[in-house]
Structure prediction request, 161 residues.
Amino acid sequence: MKCARSVLLILVLLAGSLSPPPAGAQEAGYVPQPEEEQRDFVLEQNYPNPVNPETWIPFSLDPSLYKEDQPVTVTIRVFNILGQSIAIPEAVEHPNGRGTRILNLEYAEPGRKIAFWDGKDTASRPVPSGVYYLQMVVGGETQTRKLTVLNPRNRRRIFPW
Prediction:
């Protein structure tokens, strides 16, 4: 009896979380329109995620960003859940060399780029396990991604043995 109630409760909760179909979806000849946003830059999901202890952050810069052969300024930061900036990842392949922080860093060519974060804050201390946010700013526009850090040094033991 308890199992049937649990299943019923789950079904009711699922039904309440479903969104209604778009207007006109039941009319003959309805073709859904893709809701793809054209982005001039894309902050992709970091890998590996969860971070343990370091991660790679791919991002792309579209040729449409480059006007009159001017370089594009990019900033990538890592924020904690309180919104405090705790780290600035490094550029992997940049003319200034590996290890250059991506803080108002200029890129002269479009394409796919990669950043690296060692899982440490600006004081070179390993960040504690938890949820963090990657934020990329290009030309006043912002994209954000969530990442998780699993730091084995700070992980509590669940079992006493």
